[in-house]
Write the structure tokens for this entry.
Amino acid sequence: MRGGVETELTVKRILVADSEMGVRESLTDFFVGLGYWVDGARNAQDVLDKAATSDYAVILIDCRLSGNRGLEVLTELSALYPDISVIMLSAESSLEIVTAALRKGAFDFVIKPIDVGQLTEIMQRAWEHHELTKMYQDMCAQVR
């Protein structure tokens, strides 16, 4: 786990999942610099294991993770953890793959090479979406 010191304040926890170590490390360093608490995952099982034991707000997943299993992982995460915002990454920009990702529950889709300005904006919206979803779930639980 990499990042700053956890406090009572809200910690922006994210997971970066990419088979390529260089991409994982670059994104991790970038987001740590923006104040996020960042973990890395190198394969599909690693993502699922870490999601089960940590409270991530956002997970970034490469579509080609573990031999094109990125969309399968997205489907599992969407079913198990609907409050996590998942951003899909891919060097492939076909309408078919983008549409499939969004239909399976992706918050957004980013084409590689990554425009960090665009990704920063998407990350902020994903974080806000996560927080609003959690607030809604908490309110619903109080009503029950």
Residues 48 and 76 are 8 Å apart (CA to CA). The chain has one domain: 13-143. The beta strands are 13-17, 37-41, 58-62, 85-90, 108-111.
